[in-house]
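Thread: sanity check for a docking pose with nicotinamide-adenine-dinucleotide

Original post by kr_44:
Hi all, I'm comparing my docking run against an independent structure prediction. Below are the sequence and the ligand SMILES. Could someone generate the full complex and paste the structure tokens? I mainly care about where the ligand ends up relative to the chain.
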Amino acid sequence: MHTPGHADRHHRPVRTAIVGTGGIAEGGHLPALRALAADVDVVAAVDVDPDKLAGFGDRWDIRGRYTSLTAMLAAESPDLVIVATPPVLHREHVAEALASGAWVFCEKPPALSLAEYDEMVAGERDGGPYAPIVFQLRYGPGARHYRKLVTSGVLGRPLVVQCQTTWFRGPDYFEPEWRGNFRGDGGPAMAMGIHNIDLMLTMAGPWQEVSAFAATTSRDIATDDVSTAVVRFESGALGTIVNSAVSPQSVSHLRIDTELATVKLTHLYRYRNSDWSCTPAEGIDDQLAAGWANDLPDEETNHLSQLRDVVADFRAERRPDTSGDGGRAALELITALYKSAFTGQTVKRGEIGVDDPFYHALDGSAQ
Ligand SMILES: NC(=O)c1ccc[n+]([C@@H]2O[C@H](COP(=O)([O-])OP(=O)(O)OC[C@H]3O[C@@H](n4cnc5c(N)ncnc54)[C@H](O)[C@@H]3O)[C@@H](O)[C@H]2O)c1
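Reply from moderator J.T.:
Ran it for you. Here is the predicted complex with nicotinamide-adenine-dinucleotide included:
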């Protein structure tokens, strides 16, 4: 179903609705949408909690308020629906919004299984609608710059990769039943590590095989609270991944040793150019230092960094980088990490197909 307004998509503001008016809607999406106010018109908000909806609608001056996504889609026919509901609802909400003809910008984790993901994006069509996933770390100046340098050969091939998401979440964080649950938030690798893992894959290229451990070291939860993995990349590079919810000093760390330099990113949740460093190999200091100089604007990486691209893609009717296979890559690696941890086997990319129990559930159990 397309509204007449879809035709002049190149010029008029993108009519946007948000479903889920909780923490990330308030702190991530609305500030980004307001920063793009000339390009984006927020026409509606949806939440099953009427009090939250009213407070959110008042604070952000949003006219259309609905307690049901279905009712909102019927009444407003938005161009773009931002899905900021808990992960267990992403499949249903994304599929319904795509079926209405709207593009979707869906929060991470994309879904709680590969089966859910494949089902939820089945409504994508060539030229749109598409359903990109929020992976904002890909869109910061440092990450864009690194990819340009690798593509142009300035850094050489990636050889060694370290991807560490070691955060602290106390027992109170896990009190809601859906947290620390494979059918709720998907565990720390899915809920927390996924940003860094997604960024790693865009910087180090596709993975080939993974071998992993997961353990519940100290939180009273149904998932692990720590997982570690060893990864072989298609390029031949080797890497390690650590995801933790129990590390007193919270930090996200990504380090890639290429043939010609060590590139390091150390931050928590969002980064600027100063959070990156590049240490050239002996003998090529001047050449590489000049190449690393980043003339992109030094802005903190947040939802706005990615929303700009989503709006541009919408106007150009172009597939966004984090939709389709691009939104699935980190989910597939995390699924393989858990399959390896639960089975004790090394898992290859592409082997988790529809007949595999891990395709349907992160812990490989029947739903
Ligand atoms: N990209 C990031 O950096 C980032 C950071 C934090 C959270 N997130 C993700 O954002 C999503 C939401 O997380 P949050 O922290 O905002 O959660 P939250 O619990 O604060 O908000 C979720 C909202 O969804 C509403 N809701 C529940 N069921 C609904 C339904 N059927 N229809 C409409 N609304 C419904 C709830 O009432 C609540 O207001 C999660 O997927 C989370 O992983 C992403």
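The radius of gyration is 21 Å. Hope that helps with the comparison, let us know if your pose agrees.
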